[in-house]
Amino acid sequence: MQSLALCLIRDILLRNNSDLDKHDLPLPTHEFASIDLNTNRLILGEHNYNVDVLRDTVQSGYTRLNADQKVAFDTLYQAVTSGEGGVFFLEGFGGTGKTFLINLVLAKVRSEGHIALPTASSGIAATL
Questions:
Q1: What percent of the chain stands above pLDDT 70?
Q2: Residue 107, pLDDT above cutoff 90
């Protein structure tokens, strides 16, 4: 996301006869082909993950899931990959691994180059 922000700032600066170095800002570490300022930045950010790190996260995280979490993971992932989609609700007491599970599903989807934008109705989960 930092590289995307720097690219956007650089575009603005260049239109005003300036550049990043004149403001002691670093150069972006990743170049984005043609940045369309009307493109949703959340979607642009979804293409900026290190898939190797995500794959490692999924591999190590899946082994830490309990039996019920594995059923939920497999069900959610199947809904995504099959194209069926769906609406799912995870319910459980604090500390039961809901956030860990959702983050693992998101990592799995993103590790395969797909876009994953989570939503939540309330609480801490809404900040994922």
A1: 88
A2: yes
Say if residues 1 and 29 touch (Cβ distance below 8 Å): no
* Domain edges within the chain: 2-45, 51-127
Rg (CA), the chain: 18
CA distance 76 to 70: 10
CA–CA–CA angle 59, 47, 29 (5° rounding): 100
Residue-wise pLDDT for 76-97, tens only, equals 999 999 988 888 888 889 899 9
Provide the strand spans (E) within 32-86: none
Amino acid identity, position 80: V
